[in-house]
Design goal:
mainly alpha; 0% strand
Length: 107
């Protein structure tokens, strides 16, 4: 996942996120780094345990089985893991948008 950012860092010439976004004033880095962007999206989906990479769940849990099997504190731990996976997906999409198309620029 981090190797897909190397091309962006080379094109920007800096590791600062503001520098990367400002370096995309002329053209977005998704155009010359299209393969790197695709690799990043695939690895981000795989890391957040989304389909087709969601092998963490068992076959019996596909019908919300973890909601019925756990109660109280154990459900809190399971649900916290789910919320953390969604938050990781949001962070991954934020990183992709700021490094590939420069949408974090607020000018």
């Amino acid at each position: 996942m981090s190797l897909s950012f190397v091309g962006v860092l080379v094109l920007a010439g800096t590791t600062s996120l503001d520098g990367i976004v400002n370096a995309q004033a002329r053209w977005w880095f998704v155009l010359p780094q299209f393969v790197g962007c695709i690799i990043y999206v695939i690895t981000a989906v795989a890391e957040t345990n989304r389909a087709p990479f969601d092998l963490v769940e068992a076959e019996t849990e596909l019908v919300a089985g973890f909601h019925t099997e756990y109660s109280g504190l154990r459900f809190g731990f399971v649900f916290h893991r789910r919320v953390r996976q969604h938050a990781h997906g949001v962070r991954a999409s934020q990183r992709c948008s700021s490094s590939a198309d420069g949408t974090r620029r607020c000018t």
